[in-house]
Amino acid sequence: MGRRAAVVGAGMTRFVRRAQETGKELAWEAASAALASCGLTLDDMDAVCLTSAPDAFDGVHMKGEYLSDGAGAWGKPMIRTYVGGGSGVFAGIQAWYTVASGMADVVLVVAEEKMSSTQPHPQGAFLTIFDGVLERPLGPNLLWIFALEMNRYMTVHGLEKRDIATVAVKNKRNAADHPSALLGRSDITVEDVLASEVLAWPVQRLDVSPVSDGAVALVVAAEDVAPRVSDRPVWIQGVGWNLDTTYWTNRDLVFPEYVADAARMAYSMAGVTEPRKQIHVAEPYDPFDYKELHHLEGLLLFDRGKAPEAARDGVLDRDGDLPSCPSGGLLGVGNPIAAAGLMKLAELFWQLRGEAGERQVPGTPERGVAQAWGDLMQVGTVVVMGVDPARGGGGGETSTPPASPRGRSLSEEEFRSAPGAVEHAVDARYEWDTGVAVGRFLDGLRAGKVLGRACAGCGRVLVPPRMFCERCFRQTDRWVEVESTGVVQTFSRCHVSWDMQRLESPELPAVIAIDGSDGGFLHVLGEVDPDEVRIGMAVEAVWKSTSERTGSILDIAHFRPRQREG
Amino acid sequence: MLEKVARPGDVRRWHGGIPVRHRYTPGVAGEAFFEALRTRGVLLGSRCERCGFTYAPARLFCERCFSELAPDTEVGPGGELLSFTIGFVGLEGEPLDLPVTIGLVRLDGADTAIVHHVLDPGDEPLEIGERVEVVLRAEGERTGSILDIAGFRLAEDEIA
Predict the structure, then answer these.
(1) Is residue A377 part of a domain?
(2) A373 within 8 A of A308, measured Cβ to Cβ
(3) What torsion do the CA atoms of A283, A286, A291, A296 make, to the nearest 10 degrees?
(4) What are the tens digits of pLDDT across the range A215-236?
(5) CA-CA 20 to 30 A from B41: which of A308, A484, B82, B116?
(6) Residues 435-454 of A with CB under 8 A from B
(7) ipTM of the complex
(8) In this complex, do B16 and A429 lie within 8 Å of one another by their Cβ atoms?
(9) Are both A243 and A380 inside the same structural domain?
């Protein structure tokens, strides 16, 4: 498995709503803090691993190249990796194999995000993750997919929203002890979360992490270098990552199998056979409170559907049996996407060295797991880190992350009036071809039929249809007309538009499992009292009149509760 | 597997975009640069003593050694024309009424160059290496923008 690699230094900026610093300046602050923490200089770095979310976020094309000088990459080999929200943890994986392969002895790992540049709301940059032909005409927004996943997770396991809300409370309280935190609140209660604005039921305002700016950096060194530069190197013991299909409406959503596969890969490499005993502290990805629980189950640390009980019973508290997000996580410290993921590795570094200050978990934790998640709800990235038992935990002088901001958080007024500020739009327009399979599917809709594609390899009937089966990786075999009826797999009542404006009446997005197929697609519900919708409800397509149909997903006006006999 | 589309009209496309715009603030060093440009009409750079290198416009850090830098080194207003180009077409390929001359200029005291318009280049061909100087807009017209610099013009002694 190559050379061993260890984290020997870490640094981060404050996470703020709107940083005065440019992205480069944020990256430099975090990177210089990481170097200073282990007494190394830029000259000691052999390579740079950089990560940042899509260019559309900052509107800076080739953002990796733009950030490179702040990340210390002047005149050095640099690689920017990107797997959506999973990027921050993946940067640690990238650092591991850059060192393990022997290509570099010491690497600087930098993650930066500046989301405040995006107007009117960064969600606009997310809209293109939805299928341009089958989903965007429905007017989806990012909250839909979280709400749809959360509802299904809650309903299938019979979970209480109250138990899930304890995660938001825990993390915002934990963050009150974090010097870099944006949203720490020591006095928040479950009632506050349950009373907050409903955005897309069951997602409420305080279930969600905030839009943030910030940067985090690590220094990772090879086994023969690490002990020379660090009194307590924190070894990267295992790494794993995995992707599920982008056909997210064909997935169960109740359990993140891809996270479990990534975790198994990382545990296997780390020699972890009983994660519930051998993992002492966890930093799972928590952009929404339910996601932390979903991911703890994916990390095989709790049985399916049992993590909420653990949250309720205090197991996940800083002094609980399995401290989870002792940093305060994305919900409390903030969510500058890529930086928030790398923060999880930095936090394990501080926890395992006994240097987390007010956030320090009790005892002498020797091993932790960090995880991030992203793309279209489909990627899991996992890193297991640990200290050598003989030198493990305790006894280290207490220190908190060296947060030494040069800039400040800009007020709305300062943001609008800053000298030298400029505003512009990318103003790019796209045309998406329907392609072969979806083109035929749309022809079917115009004719009032729902078509699928049969795969003789796995026996599935694929809806939406594709000319290849992503599991068997073979050409699919034939067209099949399936039903225009189905079952509500999951749904939400969404009260806001993508730019977070309140809607007059809620939209009812739903994933419909189509009868006669093994798949389904995203659509909206109508002719139903929003409060009467249930997962498992039988529904039928309401077609537009023949003359109104154009060969579009909108040829189905909506799905309504099934009225005719099946 | 691939079905041939015989009629181009059968190819259907869905249209969309990324409906965001961006607002950039100039950062810690950038604010100092633009504030000095607007109020004092001077161009600020940052000197890295360790590397013996001066960046202009000012920067918060040295990209070579990562030292923190102060935006306190005045550069220009004179400089050297390192390169130039003359544009005859606009962004959409349309011919321009008047050609636009763009210069790459290293200001006196700086080790880096900036890009801006060359004003009234005159009838004589420009030459790389020529002396130029910054032309600022009048104090009352300056807003804290790169356009507070009107452009470069040939230095008086070059014209003479």
Answers:
(1) yes
(2) no
(3) 10
(4) 999 999 999 999 999 999 999 9
(5) B82
(6) 436, 439, 442
(7) 0.89
(8) yes
(9) yes
Position of tokens 């599917």? A441
Does residue A27 sit within a domain? Answer: yes
A36 to chain B, minimum CA–CA distance in Å?
A: 11
The residue among A362, A388, A414 that closes a domain is A388
Cβ contact, residue pair A25, B27, below 8 Å:
yes
Please count the CA atoms within 13 angstroms of the CA of A70 that sit on its side-chain side: 30
Q: Residue A273 burial (CB < 10 Å; 0-12/13-18/19+)?
A: exposed
The domain total for chain A is 2
* Contacts with B, A 371-400, CB within 8 Å: none
Give the end of a domain, one of A388, A416, A448.
A388
Domain with A89, as residue range(s), is: 5-119+208-388
How many residues are given for chain B? 160
Task: Tell me whether residue A70 is in a domain.
Answer: yes
Residues in chain B closer than 8 A to A136 (CB atoms): 14, 16
Residues A325 and A448 in one domain: no
Same-domain check for residues A366 and A510: no
A227 shares its domain with A313? yes
Q: What is the pLDDT along chain A (566 residues), one digit of tens a residue?
A: 789 999 999 999 999 999 999 999 999 999 999 999 999 999 999 999 999 988 887 778 889 999 999 999 999 999 999 999 999 999 999 999 999 999 999 999 999 999 999 998 888 888 888 998 999 999 999 999 999 999 999 999 999 999 999 999 999 999 999 999 999 999 999 999 999 999 999 999 999 998 899 999 999 999 999 999 999 999 999 999 999 999 999 998 999 999 999 999 999 999 999 999 999 999 999 999 999 999 999 999 999 999 999 999 999 999 999 999 999 999 999 999 999 999 999 999 999 999 999 999 999 999 999 999 998 889 999 999 999 876 544 445 545 676 566 778 999 999 998 888 988 887 778 888 889 999 999 999 999 999 999 999 999 999 999 999 999 999 999 999 999 999 999 999 999 998 889 999 999 999 999 999 999 999 999 999 999 999 999 999 999 999 999 999 999 999 999 996 65
Task: Quickly name the fold that domain B27-159 has.
Answer: OB fold (Dihydrolipoamide Acetyltransferase, E2P) (2.40.50)
Cβ–Cβ of A433/B145 closer than 8 Å? no
CB-based contacts of A565, cutoff 8 Å, min separation 6: none
Look at residues A78, A5, A82, A133 and name the one whose alpha carbon lies nearest to residue A439: A133
- Interface size A-B, in CB pairs within 8 Å, comes to 158
Query: Does the CB of B91 have a partner CB in chain A at under 8 Å?
Result: no
Q: Is A372 found in the same domain as A238? A: yes
A500 touches B: beta carbon within 8 Å: no
Residue numbers in A near B14 (CB within 8 A): 132-133, 136-137, 431-432, 434
Helix (H) or strand (E) holding A319: none
Residue in A137, A421, A442 closest to B26 by CB = A421
Question: Would you call A20 and B60 a contact, using CB atoms and an 8 Å cutoff?
Answer: no
Any alpha helices (H) in A213-256, and if so which ranges? 226-229
Q: Coil, strand or helix: which one is B41?
A: coil
Q: Are A366 and A452 part of one and the same domain? A: no
What are the domain boundaries of chain B?
27-159
Residue A114 belongs to domain with CATH number: 3.40.47.10
B4 lies within 8 A of chain A by CB: no
How distant, in Å, are the alpha carbons of A13, A387, A388, A453, B104 from that of A397? 21, 16, 18, 62, 52
Tens of pLDDT, residues B92-135: 899 999 999 999 999 999 999 999 999 988 888 899 999 999 99
Q: Is B30 on the interface with A (CB under 8 A)?
A: yes
Same domain, A336 and A259: yes
Angle in degrees, CA A344, A348, A349, rounded to 5: 115
